[in-house]
Design a protein that fits this description.
1 helix, DUF1659, alpha+beta, 71 residues, 3 strands, elongated
Length: 71
């Protein structure tokens, strides 16, 4: 039976940085690697809120990306 072993994890914060000439939102993303594999959604939300507080732009979304080795 195959097993999945988590290799690494990162968190990406997406910010709305303005509007273009067509009045469409412009988004920028900032990623942070080396997220603890055991981190819960609540812990990541708290960390993202703290990091977003350092930005001049409003946060739109927070994404977590996990990479696995399948054995």
């Amino acid at each position: 039976m195959a097993q999945a072993m988590m290799k690494n994890s990162k968190i990406t914060l997406v910010f709305e940085t303005g509007m273009n000439e067509k009045a469409e939102a412009i988004f920028k993303a900032k990623s942070y690697a080396n997220v603890r594999k055991e981190a819960t959604a609540d812990q990541l939300d708290q960390a993202a809120s703290a990091l977003a507080g350092l930005s001049a732009y409003p946060i739109v979304s927070v994404e977590r990306t996990d990479n696995y080795d399948i054995m």
